[in-house]
What does this fold into?
Amino acid sequence: MTALVGFSSSFAVVIAGLRAVGATERQAASGLLTICVLMGAAAIVFSLRHRMPISIAWSTPGAALLVSVGAGRTHSGHGGASGYREAVGAFAVAGLLIAVTGYSRTLTRWIAAIPAPISAAMLAGVIGPICLESAQAAVHLPRLALPAVAVWAILGRFAKRWSVPAALAAAFIGLALDPSTRGHLDGGLLPTLTTVTPRFDLGTLISLAIPLYLVTMASQNLAGIAVMRSYGYEPPIREVLMGTGTGSILAAPFGGIPINFAAITAALAASPDSHRDPRRRWIAATTAGGLYILLGLGAATATALLIAAPPLLIEGVAGLALLPALGGSLTTALTDTRHREAATATFVTTASGITVAGIGAPFWGLLVGLALLTLSASKPEPRP
It folds into this structure.
C-alpha cells in the first residue's frame, strides 16, 4: 500500500513538472524510471541496514515547483531543450546541497531555523496555482474531469488513501473512451534511459535549485524525520541525507528530481498498521522499495498515458493530489498571528509566478517573507 499510494497519488505531478521544464516524453519517462529505481533501492538499503521503516520518496513539492517555475521560464524564453538542460543542472545542485547538509550540522540547523509559517507559505504559493487547475479542468474539460472529481470526492469520504489513484484511473478510462485521444499511444512502452549534459545557469540555480533544496528539506526531509520520531524511531539523519543527496546528483542527468525522506507515506510503513511490533515494521518499507522498482518499469506506459491526455486534465488531477498539502500549508502559514502578515506576503509573491532578473517567484517569496519578519522583529515596542 505504501508504494502504490506513494506512486499513483503523485507521479502525475512528477511528469507534469518534468514536461514543464522542457523534457520530452522519453526524457520524462526516463526521469520517472530513474527516481523509482533510486528511491526503491535506497529504501531497501537503509531499512535493511538499520532495521527501521525508512521510507524514501521523490520530492512531490519539488515536482510542483517545477510546474510553476517551468511555466515562468517558458514565458521568459528559457524553455525547450536548453531549459531542460538548465533544470537538470539545478537538480544536481539541489542534490549536492542536500548531501552537504548531511555533512554539516550547521546547515541543518539553518534550515530548521526558517520559521515554519514562512516555509509553509512558500510551499502553498507553489502548489496553490496547480490546485486551481482542478476547477479549470472541470469547466473546460467536463467530460473527462468531472467523473474524476466525483470519484475523488466520493472515495474521500470512505477510502481517502485511494481517492487520488481512483480519480486518476477514472481520468484514464475517460481518455480511453474519448475518440480524440485514440492513436496517441503508439510507440514503444518499454522503459528506456536517456541522458542529457547538465547546464549550470546562475538564474536557474537561484530560481530553481535553491527553492528545490529548501522545499525538499523543509517539506519532505524535516517532515519525514518528524513522522518517524512520532512513532518512536530515531532515523540516521546524516546518513540518509548524504545518501539521498548523492543519489540525486547521480540521477540528475537521467532526468531524476531529488529524492528524500518520505513524509506522508512514511506513516503507512512506520505505523502499527504495518505491524504491531515496531521491530518488524522495516519489512514494510523494504517491500515498498522493491515494489517502487517494479512500478518504475511501467514509467514509459504511465508517461505515454499522461502525454496523450490534455495538459489541463493532468494538472487538474495533480491539483486534487496536492489539495491536502495546500490545506496543511495554509493552516501552518496563517495560524500564528505573529507571522501571518509575512507568511501572507510570502504566499502572494510565490503564487504570483513573477520572474525578476531571471529568478523565479519562490525565491522572491521566501526573501520577502524573511525580510518582513526581520523588520517586524526590529520594530520598537510601543511605550505604555
